[in-house]
Amino acid sequence: MSPAEYDVAIIGGGPAGATAAYELAKSGASVLLLDREGRPKPCGGAVPPRLIEDFAIPSEQIVARVGSARIISPKSQAVEMTIDGHRRRAGTSYVGMVDREHFDRWLRRRAQAAGAHVEQGTFDRVEERTGGGFALNYRDAKGARVSCRSRLVIGADGANSAVRRQMFSPAARPPYVFAYHEIVCSPESGDFDKSRCDVVYDGAISPDFYGWVFPHGPVTSVGVGSAKKGFDLKAATSELRRRSGLGDAEIVRREGAPLPLYPLKRFDNGRGVLLIGDAAGVVAPSSGEGIYYAMCSGELAGHAALEALRTNDVRALKSVRSEFGRMHGRTFFILRMMQYFWYSSDGRRERFVSMCRDPDVQKLTWESYLDKKIVRREPMAHLRVFLKDMSHLMGIAKA
Ligand SMILES: Cc1cc2nc3c(=O)[nH]c(=O)nc-3n(C[C@H](O)[C@H](O)[C@H](O)COP(=O)(O)OP(=O)(O)OC[C@H]3O[C@@H](n4cnc5c(N)ncnc54)[C@H](O)[C@@H]3O)c2cc1C
C-alpha cells in the first residue's frame, strides 16, 4: 500500500498546530495533525479575552476568570491592579484560565471536525523527496511505524522541536527560560483569593524572571521561571507556596518545560518547512505568555500554507514571520526592554512594582495584555509612562 499523501503535515497538536490544522482543513486542504498526546503541557493556562474572542473559544473551556493581579516586590510591597475598565475593545475584561489537557484536546477535535486527519503518534523523521515534497515517519499509538508524504511540513512540536533540529541549522534555536510549576489544591477557606493572580518580582523567587500564583478554581498553578543555570526552581516554588499561604496545600502535579523567549529570525527554511508557536520562539518576553501568540502564528501559518499550495511556491511561507513581526514586533520589543531593565536587580524590581501603582502604567499594561495592542492614540500617556520609567530607573522617583 502506498503511503498516505497530504497537502500539509503538521507535527504537534498544541495551540499552534491545532489552530493551523483548523485553518487549513476548513479551507479544504488535506491535513495530517500528529500529536503524541498523553501528557498535558505544563502551563499556567492564563489567556487574554482577545484569544477567547478571536479564536471563538467556548465559555466551558474557561475554568476560571480572574479579575485582578497583585504585583509583589522584594520588600513585600503589594500593588493590586484590577482589570475592570481597562478594555478598549468592546468585550469582557478578565484573565481567563484554561486547563491545557482539555483545551488542547478541544482544539484538536475542532480541527478534526473541520476535516483534518488527527493522529495520535510520535514523530520520528522528515526528509525531502527528490522531485519535491516530504517523506515523514512516525510511530502510531500502538508503536507501529507509519510513513506518509506531504507537500509542506509545519513544525508545531514545541520548544524542543524535532522538526527544527532536523530541518533548520543548529543556530536556529531561541534562548530559553526554564519554567517549573506545581499544581496544588486551592484552599477552600482562609485568605486565599481565587479571583486574583499574584505575580512576584523578587530575586529570591526568580533572579531573572518572576514567580506566579494562578488560580484555576479547584486547583492553582504556582511556579517560577529562570534562565540561570543552577538556580533551584523547586526550592523557589516551595518558598512561593509558603509565602502565598499554600505551603500545606496538597500537590497534584509537579512539572516544568523550557519557555523560549525570542522569535527566530526565520520561521521557514525556504524549502517548504515552517515553524510556529514555541518551536519558532513566539513567546512574549517579560511575561512568558505563549498561548495567544502560538495560536496567532498557527492562523498565519494556515493562510500562508494555503497560498503556497495554491501558487505552488513555498516562498509564500515567509509571510508568517513578517506578518507576525508587523502585528506583535513592537509589543515584543517593549517587553524585551522591560525584562532587560527591570528584572536585573532587586532594587530595580522594587522600583518597577512602585511604578505599577501609576494609573497610566496600569492602563497600558492591561490594554496591551487584554487587547494585544499598544494603543497609538494616546501619545501623552506613553510619554508620561516613559518619563516616569526613566525617573524610576535613574532613582529620581522614590521606590
Ligand atoms: C510552566 C509553564 C507555564 C506557562 N504558563 C503560561 C500561561 O499562563 N499563559 C500562556 O499564554 N503561556 C504560558 N506558557 C507558555 C505556553 O505554554 C506555550 O507558549 C504554548 O503552549 C506554546 O504552544 P505550542 O502549540 O507552540 O507548543 P506546545 O503547547 O508545547 O505543543 C506542542 C505539541 O507538540 C507535541 N509534540 C512534541 N513533540 C512531538 C513529537 N515528537 N511527536 C508528536 N507530537 C509531538 C506535544 O505533545 C504538544 O501537544 C507556560 C509555559 C510553561 C512551561
From TrEMBL:
It catalyses: phytyl diphosphate + 3 NADP(+) = geranylgeranyl diphosphate + 3 NADPH + 3 H(+). GO terms for molecular function: FAD binding; geranylgeranyl diphosphate reductase activity; geranylgeranyl reductase activity. InterPro entries: BchP_ChlP_pln/prok, FAD-bd, FAD/NAD-bd_sf, Geranylgeranyl_Rdtase_fam, Geranylgeranyl_reductase. Keywords: Chlorophyll biosynthesis, NADP, Oxidoreductase, Photosynthesis. GO terms for biological process: chlorophyll biosynthetic process; photosynthesis. Gene3D superfamilies: FAD/NAD(P)-binding domain. Its EC number is 1.3.1.83. It is an enzyme of class 1 (oxidoreductase). Pathway: Porphyrin-containing compound metabolism. Belongs to the geranylgeranyl reductase family. ChlP subfamily. This is Geranylgeranyl diphosphate reductase. It comes from Georhizobium profundi.
